[in-house]
Amino acid sequence: MAEQQEQAAADAMTTRIGQVIMLLHGGDREEARSRFLDLWAEIGEEGDALHRCTLAHYMADTQDDPSDELAWDLRALSAADEFTEEPADERVGEHHRSLAVRALYPSLHLNLAADYVKLGRSEAARGHLGVARDSVGVLGDDAYGDGIRAGIGRLESRLDREDPGGAPEPTPKQGRGPGGSAGPGGETLGPPRREP
To answer: What Å distances lie between residue 9 and 5, 112, 160, CA to CA?
Structure first.
């Protein structure tokens, strides 16, 4: 019974996140940002890793400042790493959620590469672009997979035009544990503070 209640709560949160994603795709970035922050506070730092990953992944798209976008994308990657590091026995019945997280990795790294391009850090961008390219094998031959592969190709071409001889920086080590991923200056990124 308790397991069914937990699943119902998880499904409800997934639905709520999806509703805000639709609001974002409808063009209301400000309202989406506000609602995502409310959901982030509700989920909490120790909340469901897949929910945190999904929410942060889309919250990045609501940001105006490239540094803030990078911070949210790093939070999404950290949550994905956290989810995939959980022992399998703690994720019984989680096979479909595990597949969903693995399918997010190419997009997460593509977004990080794009963030670093915006910040003028082509070497870091190339590192994440390489990880994105290496992980596309988990994607299906569908519109989503095709879109991610095309995005990787476009960003790769852009980098080749703008910085033809650039070598990739090593990507941040995945799975940093409880502290999360490191930010652009090496700082640990925790949950954001809501501005008054």
So the answer is: 6, 30, 46
> Is residue 57 a contact partner of residue 76, using CB atoms and an 8 Å limit?
yes
Nearest to 107 by CA among 148, 154, 156: 148
Burial class (CB within 10 angstroms; exposed 0-12, middle 13-18, buried 19+) of 45: exposed
Note the pLDDT tens digit of each residue in 127-174.
999 999 999 999 999 999 999 999 999 999 999 998 776 655 555 544
Cα–Cα distance measured from residue 173 to residue 127, given in angstroms and rounded to the nearest whole number: 11
Q: Do residues 156 and 147 touch, judged by C-beta distance below 8 A?
A: no
The pTM for the full model equals 0.77
